[in-house]
Write a structure and sequence with these properties.
- The protein is mainly alpha-helical and 99 residues long.
- It contains four helices and no strands.
- α1 (6-23) packs across α2 and α1 crosses α4 (80-98).
- The radius of gyration is 13 Å and the shape is globular.
Length: 99
Amino acid sequence: MTNIDLNIFAKTLSDGLRYFLKNENVIVEDSDFQELENNIIYEFELPYNQQTQTPTQLLNKFAKKNYNFKKVITPHSLGIEAHEQIMLWGVLKAKSYND
């Protein structure tokens, strides 16, 4: 990805999801979130046209698989910092198709 530090992107999304799940009274495992960060980096280091998921799709799949969480998670659910990172990703992805 261009203009996004993937480590910060992954950590921000992971922290946002952890905070959201804890507020939903889900007991989370820290080790799961390291795996999540690795998965985020793996997916989003690919060129935009090879990425198979949006950030929220990836987070929803993770929460469902690891915690059987069935509510839909939106960028807004994750807090302002994660929301902004996801919006920036979307803008950069759209821009990449215009270049």
